[in-house]
Write a structure and sequence with these properties.
The chain is an alpha/beta fold and 308 residues long. 27% of the residues lie in helices and 22% in strands. It is built from six helices and 14 strands. The strands form three sheets. It has a seven-stranded mixed sheet, with helices on one face. The protein has a five-stranded mixed sheet with strand order 8-9-10-11-12, with no helix packed on it. Helix 1 links the parallel strand 4 and strand 5. Helix 3 packs antiparallel against helix 4, helix 4 packs across helix 6 and helix 5 crosses helix 6. The protein is elongated, with a radius of gyration of 20 Å.
Length: 308
Amino acid sequence: MALKFDTGFDPFYGQGVNVAPDVQRITARNPSPFTFHGTNSYIIGRDTLAVIDPGPDDEAHLRTLLGVIADRPVSHIFVSHTHRDHSPLAARLKERTGALVLAEGPHRPARALHIRETNALDASADTAFVPDVALPDGEVVDGDGWSIRTVLTPGHTANHAAFALERIGALEGTGILFSADHVMAWATSIVAPPDGAMADYMASLDRLIERGDRLLLPGHGGPVTAPRAFMRGLKTHRKMRERAILERVREGDRTIVDMVKAIYRDTDPRLHAAAGLSVLAHLEDLTARGLVVTDAAPAIDGIFTPAG
């Protein structure tokens, strides 16, 4: 399918929005070119609740979450990954509710830093976050009227997880997946080394396609209502981007800066640094597959040539 993004989203700041039975979305007021209108937090349940992705350390968002929660207990706080727009508020929400914090694990890069390499994404990482419970792949957590399964989806970050709503009330097999930043309706996910890895992202995308969920509720923007077709489009989009990068290398571009100028010429310049990291993610994969050659390890300032 042709990949069509859905940017028609109203965040309804300061209130909860019903997005499924006993599921409410609350959007933080932290809009940016990377977060769209802001980070989505989700409240699951009717009596004793779960929260998915409490969001940035923002007083107004905490007040909104507590207002929607009202006087109901919260037993679990799930965190999809440790970027600062998703995880930092977990600590303060835990203080107010006493809930357990669950996630795949603390922040870590997808690979070690190369010699003389710096992590351009250090500022976005919540390195202070440590969950109370580390979630392995497939772990099912049962709450009061709900069950949530962990689906590990590394790629955007090494510790990225999606959460499948296995049960809500009497409904089993809801087909709802909280996809966080792995799949979003409004834009592609940023895959930027060393925090993320393209090979991991593509493998996780295949995994979600195979699951066949009927509805994805992402970390930013509105729902993905035809997930399998949309994710196939995402996969095609990534393959086309890979071919474009390989073509630029074969036509003589040797640096990521030159490739970004050509491939992302119609993209908001504020996103060019992130685009460069995305190109690096593709080049890491292309180098590992023997299609591109570079001195030492692939690097943001490296020189790239066609293999053979």
